[in-house]
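User: quick one, sequence for these tokens?
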């Protein structure tokens, strides 16, 4: 068995340091792997405004993490986008020499705690009297996190079986395992218990 080979090859006074070094290396590799695989937020690139054939305007995209919405944000909502449009109303009559002044409408896209999106609208030089927000694409809610795991284990070398259970807590995974013991390591009860701790990545 591997444990017998380890006991014969490594002196007793060095075993504790080797085991500690192996634990440190596993933790270090896990931390590096998690750091390299973590999601990195990427800002959307700037884009110019584009006037389309139907007269509509694709608004200029200008990323600004410090942009502040013009409206009051509901509690626990998260701001996703801030936009502003300026509209030149048509003249009340073709012969009118006094065109209506431009009207600005400020818009904010927010995400509510349940994942749904809402649009806030306001105007610094007018009153928003109505509007319509039509969701076209359904939202996909993330599946609830599964932090518990349990199962069976089996050793093809010793032909012994056991049971285990684990729990994820942030980036740390802890668990326990109870196996049938074999060979010289057999205890009085015939079982071998282990405690697990690791890093998820």
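Assistant:
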């Amino acid at each position: 068995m591997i444990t017998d080979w380890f006991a014969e090859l490594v002196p007793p006074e060095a075993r504790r340091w080797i085991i500690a070094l192996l634990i440190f290396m596993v933790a270090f590799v896990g931390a590096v792997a998690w750091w390299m695989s973590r999601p990195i937020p990427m800002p959307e690139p700037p884009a110019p405004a584009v006037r389309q054939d139907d007269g509509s305007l694709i608004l200029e995209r200008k990323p600004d993490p410090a942009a502040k919405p013009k409206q009051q944000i509901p509690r626990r909502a998260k701001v996703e986008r801030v936009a502003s449009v300026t509209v030149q109303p048509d003249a009340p009559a073709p012969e009118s020499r006094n065109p209506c002044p431009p009207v600005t409408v400020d818009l904010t896209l927010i995400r509510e705690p349940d994942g749904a999106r809402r649009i806030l609208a306001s105007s610094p030089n007018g009153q928003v009297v109505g509007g319509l927000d039509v969701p076209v694409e359904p939202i996909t809610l993330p599946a609830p996190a599964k932090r518990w795991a349990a199962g069976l284990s089996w050793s093809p070398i010793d032909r012994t079986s056991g049971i285990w259970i684990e729990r994820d807590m942030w980036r740390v995974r802890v668990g326990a395992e109870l196996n049938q013991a074999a060979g010289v390591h057999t205890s009085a009860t015939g079982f071998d218990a282990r405690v697990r701790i690791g890093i998820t990545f």
